[in-house]
Amino acid sequence: MNIINKFTSIFCVLFLFLCISVLVKSEEGDAGLWKSEDCRNVSEAAGFFLYTSGELLKTADKERKAGSEEKSEKSYSAALFFSELSANSAKNFEVFCN
C-alpha cells in the first residue's frame, strides 16, 4: 500500500507540471506576433538608429580632434541615445517577431 501512495503522489506532481506547461505554452501562443510588415519596419528602424549612432560617433570624434569639446559631448550623447533606440528596437523585434 505504501508504494501505491508514493506512485500516486508522484503521478499527481507530474500531472500538475504537465498542466502548468500546457497553460504556459498556450499563453505564449496567444501573445500575438506582429505582422511581417511591422516586423520589417522595426528591423529597418533598428538598423537606421544604429547607423545614425555610428555617424554621430564619427562626428563626435572629428569635433573632439578639432578642439570643440562641448559639441563633441553633445554628439556623443546623441550617439548613445540612438544606440539605445536601436537596442530597444532590436529587443522588440526579438520578442514580437521571432
Detailed description of the structure:
By secondary structure, the protein is mainly α. It folds into two domains: about 1-30; about 35-98. It contains three helices and no strands. It has helices at about 1-30, 35-65, 70-95. Helix 2 (about 35-65) runs antiparallel to helix 3 (about 70-95). The longest helix is centred in the middle third of the chain and has 30 residues, at about 35-65. The model is unreliable at about 1-5 and about 10-20 (pLDDT under 50).
User: Which structural class do you get from the secondary structure elements?
Assistant: mainly alpha
Helix-strand string: HHH
Shape: rod-shaped
What would you call the quaternary organization?
single chain
Distance between the termini: 50 Å
Please tell me the total number of domains.
Answer: 2
Query: Please, how many helices?
Result: 3
The tally of beta strands, per DSSP, is 0
Radius of gyration (CA) equals: 26 Å
Q: Summarize the main sheet.
A: none
Low-confidence stretches: 1-7, 11-19
Mean pLDDT: 78
* Helix content range: over 70%
